[in-house]
Amino acid sequence: MHTRLLFTVLFLIAGTTLNAQLRLRGTVYDNSRNYTVESVLVQTNSGGFTQTDKLGNFSIPVNEQDSVWFVYEGRPTRKYAVKTIPRIDAFEIALNVPVKGMYKQLKEVVVHGRNYRMDSIRNRQDYAKVFNYRRPNLETMTNIGPGGAGIDINELIRAFQFRRNRSMLRFQARLMQQEADRFIDYRFNKTLVRQLTGLEGDALQQFMQAYRPTLEFTESASEYDFRQYIKTAFGLFQGKKAF
Fold first, then answer.
1. How far is the CA of 150 from the CAs of 6, 34, 236, in angstroms?
2. Would you say 88 and 62 are in contact if contact means Cβ atoms under 8 Å apart?
3. CA pair distance 37, 238, nearest whole angstrom
4. In a domain, 105, yes or no
5. Residue that finishes a domain, picked among 42, 67, 100
6. Which of 49, 101, 197, 238 has its CA 20 to 30 A from that of 124?
7. Within a domain: residue 141?
């Protein structure tokens, strides 16, 4: 029984590996087709996932029987069968969202904090599967039911999908880092720094790069302590410039 189960698992894993022989590359645009869209979730039926970069580009492994779809602001597109895509090295899609118009109306000082919270919640919802991911282990593979403990075959198969597990963990780490960077940007923003230091232009940029606070401090500091940090750092910045 165990031999048959192991053979079945290895057969499924081998089949998955053999099928993942293609790579779909492309770009995601807004509905005007003039502007690319960043951080769009790209998923496939075979379990692949990635997100578009700052230029709206993506690259994801697929097989000939696969379908791909895109999720933005929690809304998925229809599925596109890989075999119907004319050029898998240059697939372009336009989402029904006016990205440029959405950001054109934003004003840094008025909606900066509010947008951070909304974006963070939306990001957690869009990528819930990735944020909640856990590496397969004995606990996740064990089901406890009326008849006692048993093995979850899906978790057992997932445990042998080494490449996918590594990819998921890297993706999770990247999303966590992006969330941390956005939180620091939210508190350590140009409007606040400019208000406390009077810096402008290149000097403002240099100061913000040199004295960007850590995530731990940004999360724990009160508003008073955070402002004091900026003022103290500005004094050090001025001292260095004097030399």
1. 15, 54, 62
2. yes
3. 39
4. no
5. 100
6. 101
7. no
Last residue of one domain, picked from the residues 100, 130, 152? 100
pLDDT value, residue 178: 82
Q: Which of 157, 81, 169 is nearest to 130 (CA)?
A: 169
The domain that holds 38 is classified in CATH as 2.60.40.1120
- Angle subtended at Cα 165 by Cα 156 and Cα 45, rounded to the nearest 5 degrees: 85
The answer to whether the beta carbons of residues 190 and 208 sit under 8 Å apart is yes
| pLDDT given at position 34 | 78
Question: Strand 67-72 relative to strand 41-44: parallel, antiparallel, unpaired?
Answer: antiparallel
Is 231 within the bounds of a domain? yes
Q: Looking at residue 54, what is its pLDDT? A: 86
What is the total count of domains within the chain?
2
pLDDT tens for residues 38-74? 889 999 998 888 999 888 899 999 998 999 999 998 8
Strand spans (E) along 73-226: 75-76, 80-81, 91-94, 142-145, 148-151
Residues 184-198: tens digit of each pLDDT: 988 999 999 999 999
Residue 195 inside a domain? The answer is yes
Identify the pLDDT of residue 167: 74
The Cα-based distances of 195 to 63, 187, 221, 227 in angstroms read 54, 13, 19, 10
For residue 26, give its domain range.
2-100
